[in-house]
Amino acid sequence: MARWEPGARERLVVAAVDLFAEQGYDTTTVAQIAERAGVTRSTFFRHFPDKREVLAAGQDTLCQLLAAGIADAPSSATPLEAVGAGLEAAAQAFTPERRDLGPKMRDAIAASSELQERETLKRVGLATAITDALKERGISDPTASLAAEVGVLALKMAYARWADPTNRQELAAIARQSLQELQTASATLS
Amino acid sequence: MARWEPGARERLVVAAVDLFAEQGYDTTTVAQIAERAGVTRSTFFRHFPDKREVLAAGQDTLCQLLAAGIADAPSSATPLEAVGAGLEAAAQAFTPERRDLGPKMRDAIAASSELQERETLKRVGLATAITDALKERGISDPTASLAAEVGVLALKMAYARWADPTNRQELAAIARQSLQELQTASATLS
């Protein structure tokens, strides 16, 4: 019988990303991921419903951090300032261990349409979390949805830069800069 | 042996949406959809790889229309004006038959997480088509991606209004109005 082991979840994520990168997503099995992580298959299934969902590890945490950051922004904050506060709060989920996984994860996603689907759905889930948190602040649609899309684009840009091994800036700083670039771009739309 | 029959694709879409609405997506089989449409299972599979993909019928056409409309916009057009030209061109895909399907399709999607996933992926596919078409015009990121998200939000808003049986305006006009509302909203972001 496997016991509940602290750190098993993190080890499963690392093992899965390693295997996806080494041998491809399609040929990687749950049994292989569990073995590489040093846990049983049933421990795997206590953490994830299937191998695709390993990629979404942390999505719930990220949504909660975004929502909390937005809720805690000063009442005078503009919609994009509130989104910025959300990104700032979310940045703490991006640990150094996760940064090291970045390039491998990017390669694994690029090679698998199924992982691309999951990644897309994750991003849309984040947009929904931001939209809902902005609505809680009394910001209505379409402004809330629009600000959420800007926030998700900022996070996507920031993540790509952060996961680049040559970049040693903190995610919070990169996200601020990405949001600023999008704000500048939005002035050139029309 | 079933022969290739004009109109079979459209009948399959109508049959699928009817069945999803009547008895739920999960319990509906490809055989039932084919029977309701008056075609064989093999005819179904000539048009769609599985029942989920019936929902994405027309996605390729829509992407092509969006891209063509954006490419044909005057060279002086701003990014959002080019997106508006794309939406205008895409509006021709929204036929009266499709309008009648709207409420049933909305209910079927609301009741099935698998259809919601497919709908989400469709929307992201449209965003990619718009982004690529804008880049062809020399508009770079992040402006191209941002304008594409605005375009997809406008189409989503416009579709919801158009599919409402009490609304008899043309989609092109509703889309123009939605894009205008988003433009106004973008001025209040910061």
CATH first level of the largest domain in chain A: Mainly Alpha
Topology-level CATH name of the largest domain in chain A: Tetracycline Repressor, domain 2
Which structural category fits the helices and strands of chain A? mainly alpha
- Count the E strands of chain A: 0
In sequence order, what are the helices and strands of chain A, one letter per element?
Answer: HHHHHHHHH
Oligomer: homodimer
Biggest interface between chains: A-B, 26 and 26 residues
Q: Topology, please?
A:
2 copies of one chain form a homodimer.
Chain A: H1 8-23, H2 30-37, H3 41-47, H4 59-71, H5 79-90, H6 96-110, H7 113-136, H8 143-162, H9 171-186
Helix pairs in contact in A: 1-2, 1-6, 4-5, 4-7, 5-8, 5-9, 7-8, 8-9
